[in-house]
Amino acid sequence: MATERVSAGLLMYRFKDGELQVFLAHPGGPYFKKKDEGHWTIPKGEIHAGENLLDTAIREFQEETGIQPAGEFIELGSIRQKGGKLVHGWAFHGNWDESIPITSNTCKLEWPPLSGKFLSFPEIDRAQFFSIRRAREKIKPTQQPFLDRLAGVLKKRDTAGVRT
What we know:
Blueprint: E1 6-16, E2 19-27, E3 44-46, H1 53-65, E4 74-80, E5 86-93, E6 106-110, E7 118-122, E8 124-131, H2 132-138, H3 144-159
Parallel strand pairs: 1-5
Antiparallel strand pairs: 1-2, 1-3, 2-8, 4-5, 6-7
């Protein structure tokens, strides 16, 4: 019996010139080199045995971007990706100096396929802040609910007079 694949990740957000922006990552490696729209993701990764979901999300975000997440983590629930993987998400308010490159961990992949040669590729080859409108075009369609949920939580807080 196959075990369910479960990941956890973080969606960093900020406000720039009064506009909500979110931080998305583009997968590295040869399969995604020429893919853009609909392929960006929240930095995420699979859970280690006995690891807490939020701890996984924090660890994976740091490993894939080199950025240490901190502050309040807003639970965004979970989504199921096209391939069946269950992804749990949280958001946090943060910033990143875009002049400093991200530092991603690497993964080994047989490339070219069936060549017997294994090469290392960064899990994330680039990252960027996007407006919510633009992020909807960039992110995997199954992860769009994370954007909606974040916007909803922040709108409720704003209506209640809570500063984020």
